[in-house]
Amino acid sequence: MSVKKILVIGYSLTIQSDGYISELKRNSTEKIDIFAIGGANWHSTLYTMNLINLNDYALILFEIATCARWLGNGEHTRGRYEKILEIIISHVIAKNIPCGFLNFTRHDINHDNDPMLKAICNISQKYGAPSSEFPEILGELKNFLYDGIHTKNAGAILYANLALDLINQIKVFSRYPNQPPKGVNSITYSQPVSCQDNASLESFRFNKGGLNERFYKIHEGNKLIVINGSEEDIWIRGLMLKIGPETGTIKISKAGECLFSKLCFDDRSYYERYFPLFTPAIKLKKTDRIIITCQHEVNRPKLQKGENYLGPQSISISHHFASTEYPTP
């Protein structure tokens, strides 16, 4: 099989500027794109697959377990992750695009009893999608990973070689032996914020990690309206934010009642990035709407570097995460 374009879907390891993707591009003859969001929001891929034009790609790698491996062991964790994986892989199976799963290590896991690996192996066997083994670390882990998770140069080379091996395995793909349950790929999705209902808000595009989405900025005193946008009841499970120095506290209300409030600024908000914010499930009927506002927060965390911005604060939103099932995955 001749591969013209490869997509790697992942998290902070995949978006790392001097990481394994840079090495992979140097050692591969194919064009490689990424779709990656930093941080440990390990189930955000569940809601963002519909943002990707999968038809542009002939082969897909998933690096979507590393940031979740701190969760610990247990059948509940593995079972939930397995369901999430099945929904994610259903998108590529529907288009018959071959894919595989990368397994990278971190300092705080037990290779012999890792629930993410067990779940990935089960899905790999069921659908015939190859998965890599954990990389063999020769020597001390600190020589490969500078913080126990993200790569130094030696780690980037090791991981790139692992990815190249997996790509070669995927290239002999013929077809998926099984199909996911019908309709499973429509259970979760991202719905863009309606420009019609929020025309008065400042809007802009933000390009990072292969995403280039339109955001609406909620200044203090403004509000953003989220509507259902479908013909059936849905459950709102979260929002795609852009966070940075100006980020304040988000408040979500429905029918005058505050349902959720959270300071979205963190100690790494000295730079701007995509940030999937997950909330308790909020049921939204066809005619319902929720109101989102920004509140000024005086006591924000101290940044890891630089000085905190002291001006007006805001919240920027591009999509809401929706599920047609409850409880949601």
Poorly predicted parts: none
Report the average pLDDT across residues.
91
Helix coverage percent of residues? 10-25%
Major sheet summary line:
6 strands, antiparallel
CATH fold field value of the largest domain: Rossmann fold
Descriptive notes:
The longest helix has 20 residues, at 75-94. This protein has helices spanning 12-15, 20-27, 45-48, 75-94, 115-127, 153-170, and strands at residues 5-10, 31-36, 59-63, 99-101, 188-192, 202-208, 211-219, 223-227, 234-243, 249-254, 257-263, 273-284, 289-295, 314-323. Helix 2 (20-27) crosses helix 6 (153-170) and helix 4 (75-94) packs parallel to helix 5 (115-127). The two termini are 35 Å apart. The protein contains six helices and 14 strands. Strands 5, 6, 7, 9, 12 and 14 form a six-stranded antiparallel beta sheet that branches. The model has no long low-confidence stretch (mean pLDDT 91). The protein is α+β, with helices and mostly antiparallel strands and 329 residues long. It folds into two domains: 5-170, SGNH hydrolase (Rossmann fold, 3-Layer(aba) Sandwich), CATH 3.40.50; 187-323, Jelly Rolls, CATH 2.60.120.
Structure keywords:
329 residues; alpha+beta; Rossmann fold; Jelly Rolls; six-stranded antiparallel β-sheet; four-stranded parallel β-sheet; 20% helix; 30% strand
Could you provide a short overview of the structure?
With 329 residues, the protein is of the alpha+beta class. The chain is 20% helix and 30% strand.
